[in-house]
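forwarding from the other thread:

> can someone predict this with 4'-deoxy-4'-aminopyridoxal-5'-phosphate?

sure thing
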Amino acid sequence: MFSHLQPTPIDPILGLMAAYKEDPNPLKVDLGVGVYKDEQGHTAVLDCVKKAEALRLKNEDSKTYIGMAGDLSFNSHIEKLAFGQHKVLLSGRVTTAHTPGGTGALRVAAEFIKKANPDATVWVTNPTWANHISLFQAAGLTVKEYAYYDWETKGLKFDAMMTELAQVPAGDVVLVHACCHNPSGMDLNFEQWKQFAHLAKDKGFTPLVDMAYQGFGLGLEEDSQGLRYLADQVDEMLLCSSCSKNFGLYRERIGAVSIVTADSKTTDIAKSVLLAVVRSIYSMPPAHGAIIVSHILDSQELTALWHQELAVMRNRINDYRQLIIDKFAAEGITQDFSFITKQHGMFSFLGINKEQIERLRKEFSIYMVGSSRVSISGLNHSNIDYFANAMAQVLKG
Ligand code: PMP
């Protein structure tokens, strides 16, 4: 039966990574891949993680199964990181399972939605992280897009977004990015979050917040402000979190799915459904990443160190957003790229065309995905002048 299989096209980002790896040009620049890189172009293990791992090695006394919900201490920490001292936590309206990465959280959320309403449509931003679409479709759900990023103004199509979402019926799910929108970097401001939350309450659709970058935008608290306001307003919502970026735990695959329900009785039922979903996919999550995060957040000292290390990553990206503008100006680029400083997180679209992207790759070995999305932390002091100069040449035509 395998002979009937048709090849599946690989994700263009993976193809781009392979091409970059093989490129012999010593000046090559990788702006494709969505991982944080430091000034040396390295994705280092955070010191707080190293210390927590040492602690784990010393204290761990069993490798027995961890349970379907995963590490309960981690779950409680991740709920507090997201919601703070929120009434939804204080009133027992949240149930959480730790998952293999944020991707695992989304996949579990998709199956959970399918059980709650098999006919639900999941609405995603146009554009969104490509995997969102595959993940919800894989669970048999319909996925539709709503207006979000404006390619003309490089801002948000907020009015169109609100008009389109006003048509979404109760029983459907609307996915929003908590912060650091992937791929555009364009986030809702707090006023817009409020309007979105009121709309969700009025129309009765269920928000799903994907928070893959908490702490990478403005700060840990600031990045969850919209989410918390939303939780003030609506009775039910879903949250998918990831520790890949903010703890640098990419390959350990650690994230969480949290379900907020209208009352604690429904939470118990939701929990049983959630755990049944987990059981039927991977039974129980891997423990390592969750225990590292728990050790960090259990300790005041390690938490303080994490906050420092997270701020270094966040500030470096935000500084480079401004540096790009300065370097472009120094190269005599007159087009307006100021939108880059209004966006947050790992990514922005440069808004250049296919030929220009192709020239950057072929003539300068500068790699970005075909949408012109760039991963800002791929830039550093050794390559930013080269990048700005190449951009100036390509923009001249
Ligand atoms: N959501 C968004 C918007 C993302 O960009 C990512 C990572 N690229 C994820 C979820 C999943 O992250 P992970 O599975 O690596 O934790």
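The chain has two domains: 11-45+302-396, 65-298. thats all i got for now
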